């Protein structure tokens, strides 16, 4: 992932997740004042649905939201997403999506910058290297840019930004899954190519983590991706004669 600082922060974050999901927050001693998150549909709490405006969308209809909120909530789920459980464990309110209040919100307990369909790598990467066109609703770079814009407004100056992030938990991901989903979703694309650019996906996530550390964050969670290469639809569309 990069420097010793980055590696230490990620190791600490793994321990923090284990504590959050298995213990009462009062017992674990976690006292984060704010919680910030980046990611894709597994984390998004309403940004994508906000950006599509007032038009009709299946995401605005049941069964989305039916089991917990009893109505569509902007989450790509019939209930909560994982970031909601983290917030609950921290004793914080559910994270609001950042985009609706990017220019004005104070986000006293944090914000969620994740957007459904986001990629870790920018679309220019795929176009330049593979002549492959992808149009993600957002990218990790765009989410970080929005995060920095919000920080400059609610905690102007390096000292204030660092102080705010010192008391915050930052979730970077899950992100990167769509970098493979867009490719595997096209049956004409070679099955081996994603393995070529996998290191670049990992490197971009690592660079984002380092950016957040440089801003002042001390505790960062980096969730892993699913084994996307094992998705049955992708295995069927990209068949191989190699049993392994």
TrEMBL record:
Gene3D superfamilies, A to Z: SGNH hydrolase (3.40.50.1110)
InterPro entries named among the record's database cross-references: GDSL, Lipase_GDSL_AS, SGNH_hydro_sf
Entry keyword annotation includes Membrane: no
Signal peptide: 1-28
GO terms, biological process: lipid metabolic process
Gene Ontology MF term list: lipase activity
This protein's UniProt keywords: Glycoprotein, Signal
The organism's place on the tree of life at top rank: Eukaryota
Entry's family note: Belongs to the 'GDSL' lipolytic enzyme family.
The protein's name: GDSL esterase/lipase
Organism of derivation: Aegilops tauschii subsp. strangulata
């Amino acid at each position: 992932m990069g420097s010793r600082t980055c590696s230490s922060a990620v190791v600490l974050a793994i321990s923090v997740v284990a504590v959050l999901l298995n213990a009462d927050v009062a017992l674990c001693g976690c006292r984060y004042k704010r919680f910030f998150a980046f990611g894709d549909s597994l984390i998004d709490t309403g940004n994508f649905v906000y950006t599509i405006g007032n038009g009709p969308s299946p995401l605005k209809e049941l069964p989305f939201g039916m089991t917990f909120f009893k109505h569509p909530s902007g989450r790509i789920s019939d209930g909560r997403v994982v970031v909601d459980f983290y917030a609950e464990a921290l004793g914080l309110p559910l994270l609001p999506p950042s985009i609706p209040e990017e220019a004005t919100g104070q986000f006293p307990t944090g914000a969620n910058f994740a957007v459904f369909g986001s990629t870790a790598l920018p679309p220019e990467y795929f176009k330049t290297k593979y002549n492959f066109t992808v149009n993600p609703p957002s990218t990790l770079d765009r989410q970080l840019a929005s995060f920095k814009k919000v920080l400059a407004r609610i905690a102007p100056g390096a000292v204030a930004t660092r102080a705010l992030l010192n008391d915050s938990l930052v979730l970077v991901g899950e992100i990167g899954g769509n970098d493979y989903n867009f490719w595997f979703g096209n049956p004409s694309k070679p099955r081996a190519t994603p393995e070529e650019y996998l290191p670049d996906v990992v490197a971009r996530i690592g660079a984002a983590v380092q950016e957040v550390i440089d801003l002042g964050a001390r505790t960062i969670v980096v969730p892993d991706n699913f084994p996307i290469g094992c998705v049955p639809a992708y295995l069927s569309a990209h068949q191989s004669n190699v049993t392994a």
